[in-house]
Design brief:
Blueprint (H helix, E strand, L loop, with lengths): L4 E2 L8 E2 L3 H4 L4 H15 L14 E12 L6 E14 L2 E12 L4 E11 L5 E11 H7 L12 E10 L5 E10 L2
Antiparallel strand pairs: 1-2, 3-4, 4-5, 5-6, 6-7, 7-8, 8-9
């Protein structure tokens, strides 16, 4: 399959990422398992793949994504996205900046962060967002269609913990509706 090469600074050895079809476009369970193994390796829970032992940071800049909702047929674009994964002695940290545009051209900013301490499978996650149109979001997620009549943009944050066994806990939210 296709492979993505990762260019590292001259002081580091080049590393090869897993096949892209294992991460996207293939079997969902396989993709989730591949990402989970990669995170476990970065967190020091399992041995790292050969060639990545000294890898401490992965960064993707200026990525353009088109994300489709298979259930509703809707889509939105993320242009100029940035992703960063950093591994240190205390664990791993990841963040993403996603400038989003829906089909109507409405813009929103989403910032995702995650952190997992060394030796644990609990992952602390947070999301901050601004300019998110509730009516556009309601069209993408039928479960919140009742929010559709609220045409105001919303800003806020959501945080919580995904435990190693899959349980979700410690969820906090804050929302602010703009007129």
């Amino acid at each position: 399959g296709d492979r993505a090469a990762l260019a590292l600074p001259e002081s580091e050895a080049a590393a090869e990422l897993p096949p892209l079809d294992a991460l996207v476009g293939g079997n969902r369970e396989e993709a989730v398992a591949a990402v989970s193994r990669l995170l476990d390796a970065f967190a020091g829970l399992i041995p790292r793949p050969p060639g990545t032992e000294r890898l401490r940071r992965v960064a993707i800049r200026d990525a353009d994504l088109l994300i489709r909702n298979a259930a509703t047929g809707g889509a939105f674009r993320v242009g100029g996205a940035q992703f960063r994964l950093t591994a240190g002695d205390d664990g791993i940290k990841a963040d993403a900046l996603l400038p989003v545009r829906d089909q109507e051209g409405n813009a929103a900013d989403i910032v995702l962060s995650g952190e997992r301490a060394t030796g644990t499978r609990d992952t602390h996650l947070s999301a901050r967002f601004s300019g998110l149109r509730l009516d556009a979001l309601a069209r993408q997620l039928p479960e919140i269609a009742w929010l559709g009549p609220i045409g105001a943009p919303v800003s806020g944050r959501v945080s919580g913990v995904v435990h190693g066994d899959g349980r979700i806990g410690d969820i906090t939210t804050a929302l602010d509706l703009a007129p």
